[in-house]
Design a protein that fits this description.
Helix 1 (2-38) packs parallel to helix 3 and helix 2 packs antiparallel against helix 3. The chain is mainly alpha-helical. It is built from three helices and no strands. It has helices spanning 2-38, 44-58, 70-90.
Length: 96
């Protein structure tokens, strides 16, 4: 029975580590995206999608009920990528 607890603890630690890494990546992207939102030339629908993703992140409604918020982070990362792509096509930001 001790082995089962170690497996459960290892899986839980892996999920927590994945969530922390994704949250760190998300924080960096959110700071960059905030700068893009202040710049002109970004289409309104991309800004609305970004703010909608933030509202989804904060809302209690969830597509996949899980304790590690992987779907929330995924939705927000998708919105950030869309906003960054719109900024690149509008000439606000340059692709690295």
């Amino acid at each position: 029975m001790r082995t089962e607890w170690w497996v459960v603890a290892a899986v839980a630690a892996a999920l927590i580590a994945t969530t922390v890494v994704l949250a760190g990546l998300l924080l960096v992207r959110l700071v960059r995206t905030r700068r893009l939102l202040r710049d002109a030339g970004i289409p309104v629908e991309n800004k609305v999608m970004f703010w909608g993703a933030l509202i989804y992140l904060a809302s209690p409604v969830d597509l996949l009920p899980d304790p590690v918020l992987l779907d929330d982070i995924g939705v927000l990362l998708l919105a950030v990528r869309s906003l960054q792509a719109a900024a690149v096509s509008a000439g606000v930001a340059r692709r690295r």
